[in-house]
């Protein structure tokens, strides 16, 4: 998969990942844990990561929630509005596989299937947990960086 | 001076200002992080950000008017570069400046704001439209007090419109801030500089958590990198303008003026960071009221006092 071609852009990309947070019907528990990453205890700005206000500015989409029928087309739209190279973090059990809400009447497909419907090559990393600890999210980001370096 | 050398000087000024501006962006972010008991980003973080944005895809929304949308950041960056060349000339080569360059600089420094309005409006995004309309109101708010404040300095320094003469006049007769009207005008100009930089109490046009970075919401990749560079350069240039106009510029003939100049510069940049970290965002109506009904009257009083002071030969006024 051609994530990025030039060595210097890849080098800069791994040092400056900007995150846009997409709530696809989460219970707000994962969202609070995502905000923990910005606090003095974790401070992901040390690694150049920022939470940005627009998907157009983002390199990473942090998706939380079960992906309901209401949000599924919107998640796809936000993903398509993110400039390449882009990486998706599916944060929490719900985003990874709909958690306890599987087979509920208001579910669309899980986040990964929803995104692969519009981009079969989408890079998706899974952070399981209900909610996952901030350490787990940082570990996922480190894996994303390793992946970007090797891709 | 031949054209090649002129281009070289311009490029050196523009690139140097970019480097300085990115370093100042780091200082700003690092101090903000320390204020919040965080560690903060590494020194080269702003450079990484710009390099990364250069390598990203440049998306254009289907509703956008392409020419205006893509041209705006480039024109903003170019005009800031020209302003950089003129301002650095006034600092290091006061004799090499031309008549009326003060007016040219004031105009050039307005272009980034007008280009944000153009780019935001051309992007066809409702958030950007709100941001563009706010930016326009903000521009109407701070331009008048800023120009009035600069007029005070012009009156104090022999009614000259040449940046180089402004600086040398102050080096001979004392800085403009040392007079009462000069101090008032300086304070007004500091707040106008803060609004021009779009920093927090006056960041209504971006308002990240309210209208999703407003005017910049649709920008991605290289275009966004242009905006970042423009804003970094403005952060480096506006304190420079204030020092040249109000605070004596740089007297290259004496050694002790170099550390003094540096201290003034650092003080003004630090003031921007402190103001932005200790204030909540004002609403657009509060912002415009503040500029029209507080700062503009203060600037008018300062200009009147300066005119009286000059005509009556009261240098303290």
Overview of the molecule:
The complex is a heterodimer of chains A (151) and B (317). With 151 residues, chain A is of the alpha/beta class. Chain A has one domain (17-150): Rossmann fold (3-Layer(aba) Sandwich). Helices cover 38% and strands 15% of the residues of chain A. Chain A is built from six helices and five strands, in the order αβαββαβααβα. Chain A has a five-stranded parallel beta sheet, sandwiched between helices. In chain A, helix 3 links the parallel strand 3 and strand 4 (87-91). Chain B has one domain (3-311). Chain B starts with a helix and ends in a 6-residue tail after the last helix. Chain B is mainly alpha-helical and 317 residues long. The model of chain B has no long low-confidence stretch (mean pLDDT 88). Chain B has eleven helices and no strands. Chain B is globular.
Total of domains of chain B: 1
Pair with the most extensive interface? A-B, 26 and 31 residues
CATH architecture of chain A: 3-Layer(aba) Sandwich
Low-confidence stretches of chain B: none
Q: How many individual helices of chain B?
A: 11
Helix content of chain B: over 70%
């Amino acid at each position: 998969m051609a994530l990025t071609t030039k060595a210097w852009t890849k080098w800069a990309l791994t040092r400056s990942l900007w995150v846009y947070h997409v709530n696809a019907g989460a219970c707000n528990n994962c969202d609070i844990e995502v905000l923990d990453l910005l606090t003095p205890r974790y401070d992901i700005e040390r690694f150049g990561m920022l939470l940005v206000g627009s998907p157009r500015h983002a390199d990473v989409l942090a998706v939380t929630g079960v992906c309901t029928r209401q949000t599924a087309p919107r998640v796809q739209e936000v993903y398509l509005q993110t400039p390449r190279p882009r990486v998706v973090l599916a944060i929490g059990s719900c985003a990874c596989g709909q958690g306890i809400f599987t087979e509920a009447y208001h579910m669309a497909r899980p986040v990964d299937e929803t995104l692969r419907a519009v981009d079969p090559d989408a890079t998706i990393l899974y952070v399981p947990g209900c909610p996952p600890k901030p350490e787990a999210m940082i570990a996922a980001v480190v894996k994303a960086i390793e992946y970007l370096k090797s891709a | 001076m031949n054209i090649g050398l002129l281009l070289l000087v311009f490029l050196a000024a523009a690139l140097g200002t970019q480097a300085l501006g990115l370093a100042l962006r780091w200082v700003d972010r690092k101090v903000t992080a320390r204020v919040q008991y965080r560690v903060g980003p590494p020194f080269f973080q702003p450079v990484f950000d710009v390099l990364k944005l250069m390598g990203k895809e440049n998306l254009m929304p289907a509703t956008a008017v392409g020419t205006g949308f893509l041209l705006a950041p480039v024109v903003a960056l170019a005009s800031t570069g020209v302003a950089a060349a003129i301002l650095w000339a006034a600092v290091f080569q006061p004799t090499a400046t031309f008549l009326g360059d003060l007016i040219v600089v004031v105009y050039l420094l307005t272009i980034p704001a007008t280009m944000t309005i153009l780019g935001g409006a051309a992007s066809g995004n409702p958030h950007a439209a709100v941001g563009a309309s706010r930016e326009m109101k903000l521009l109407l708010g701070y331009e008048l007090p800023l120009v009035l404040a600069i007029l005070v300095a012009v009156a104090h320094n022999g009614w000259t419109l040449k940046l180089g003469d402004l600086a040398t006049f102050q080096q001979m007769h004392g800085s403009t801030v040392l007079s009462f009207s000069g101090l008032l005008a300086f304070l007004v100009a500091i707040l106008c500089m803060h609004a021009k930089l779009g920093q927090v109490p006056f960041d209504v046009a971006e308002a990240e958590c309210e209208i999703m970075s407003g005017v910049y919401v649709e920008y991605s990749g290289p275009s966004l990198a242009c905006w970042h560079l423009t804003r970094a350069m403005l952060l480096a240039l506006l304190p420079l303008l204030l020092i040249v106009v109000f605070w004596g510029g740089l007297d290259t003939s004496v050694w002790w003026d170099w550390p003094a100049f540096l201290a003034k510069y650092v003080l003004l940049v630090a003031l921007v960071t402190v103001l932005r970290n200790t204030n909540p965002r004002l609403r657009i109506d509060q912002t415009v009221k503040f500029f029209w009904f507080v700062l503009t009257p203060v600037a008018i009083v300062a200009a009147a006092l300066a005119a009286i002071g000059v005509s009556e030969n009261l240098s303290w006024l």
